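Morning run. Coffee first, then this:
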Amino acid sequence: MNTALRITTFTAGLAAAFGLALGVGHATGTGPAAPEPAAAHAGHTGHDAGHDSGGEPAAADHLPGGLQVSERGYTLSVEHPFVTAGSPTDLRFRILDADGRPVTAYQQQHDKELHLIVAPRDLSTFQHLHPTLAADGTWSAPTAVPAAGEYRVLADFTPAGASEGLTLGADLHAAGDLRPTPLPDTGRTVTADGYTVTLGGDLTPGRSSHLTLTVSKDGSPVTDLQPYLGTYGHLVALRAGDLAYLHVHPDTTTPGPGIGFTTTAPSSGSYRLFLDFQHQGTVRTAAFTATTDAEAPAADHQH
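And here it is:
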């Protein structure tokens, strides 16, 4: 069976093993060749494979980020997890420590103390928010979920004094007329607000992989991208099926047209890729989904 990966704009089941290659498939047209693999970004440890900190069982150490509401003594507590679709809401939450006290001090990561992702289970939309922190440890972010359904709230942060960051996830329930959206097929190239973004490179579960996303407009390469969150591009990957979270940043320093990323997929399956980039003072988002053949043979994951 063909194990090539197909690229779509926006589930596939998970394979229990981690050694299966997840290749970005051959789409109509030719995408840019992937650069030589570079070292993995070290700013977000714990998103791919965890490390034993003494407070969690070893069996949970390898889980991707965002699957647990509590991890390593920290808990994500959403104040009002029930909202109405289409209505503005002030999303409020706290990070609690092992004693149930709100955390009030954080390390800055990529220009922010906390990154917040809100996405529905069908991955049809994506919000990357930067909430504000009150003195009592309550975070708040004005938002509105566009449609009814079950959403995942993902908080990516590093407490003050911690040696590594973590990502916690909690459910958000939006009342209304529920109409889940399937993943539509495209190729390696998508458009975002008049820009064309092309994805090159392959993902390999359990192994460092390099991706290049190339930005152009009106047929010409964009070579003057502006920094966003301290880099020329920001990539978030969510695994379809459970919304496991992988947060990576570029390993290139030039302002376009290509933005290179090094990342590791925790397993085979489908991944929704969201690229945020800034040009002419506005942040745009380009979205892809990479899907592998669920019936391909897999190798045992080795720790």
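The chain has two domains: 4-42+186-291, 65-175. Good start to the day.
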